[in-house]
Design brief:
This protein is of the alpha+beta class and 109 residues long. It has a 4-stranded antiparallel sheet with strand order 4-5-6-7, with no helix packed on it. 18% of the residues lie in helices and 37% in strands.
Length: 109
């Protein structure tokens, strides 16, 4: 299944990929280190996962782990992820606001 056909959900050190049409579980992955909150960033052909300071790279279609970096000496906590290739919540909100403004301008004009 292609990444664009999936929805990724992170919680309790786990990532679950769901079929975006049916909601069925396609694959599930659990972090070997770190616990709690999971931050996700779909970065082109990579799914970057951070769990309490431990960072993993997964293959979005299969959930296969490609690499791991503990980022030793940098502490733990809730991560913030960004990438030139990835899509962040801020970018999505900005795009939605731009589209709303365009629609409002079109209906007013």
């Amino acid at each position: 299944m292609k990444a664009e056909e999936l929805v990724f959900v992170g919680f309790k050190s786990r990532v679950v990929a769901l079929n975006r049409q049916t909601g069925e579980v396609v694959w599930e992955w659990k972090a070997s280190q770190g616990s709690g909150f999971v931050a996700l960033l779909l970065d082109g052909d990579r799914l970057i996962v951070s769990v309490n300071g431990y960072t993993y790279c997964l293959e979005p279609e299969t959930g296969r782990q490609l690499w791991f970096n503990p980022l030793e000496g940098r502490g733990i906590g809730v991560p913030c992820l960004a990438s030139v290739n990835g899509t962040t919540v801020g970018a999505l909100l900005s795009a939605a606001a731009d589209e709303a403004a365009r629609q409002q301008a079109a209906s007013a004009g």
